[in-house]
Amino acid sequence: MNLNGQTNAKVDEYISALKADTAETVRFLRQVILESDKEIGEQIKWNSPAFYFAGEMPAFDAKEYKRDVVVINLHRGNILLVFPTGARISDKSGIGGKNYPDGRKVVPISGLADARLKAGALQSAVKNLLAGVEKD
């Protein structure tokens, strides 16, 4: 859902084309992310469901990825949560994952059971990132 409570049709189409077990996990992760904050929007970006801050922001360089929150990336059958600016996430979120020198954080999700276990930490990580967004 976005600011007006609607889901993005392109994200719906993307998920419906996945294998049933993968689709169920991605659908669950999507719900957890969207329920984290009313100002989360969704789109297809980098050929994956991507979630971003949909509120007003001052102008910035697009290469800084300030608006981007998390991407659900499917790579060789694995589900990865990619936080473009995830290195900023407080360790207190409990999300785990690996930080990269370019500022990304990548968190593998092994399936629906793992997604359910990480749901609280995922919401905490999203809220943590949104707290650092410069809003207009």
From TrEMBL:
Pfam hit, one: DUF1801
Cited Gene3D superfamilies: 3.90.1150.200
UniProt organism field: Hufsiella arboris
Name assigned to this protein: YdhG-like domain-containing protein
InterPro entries: YdhG-like
Domain of life the protein comes from: Bacteria
Domain (YdhG-like): residue spans on this chain: 24-114
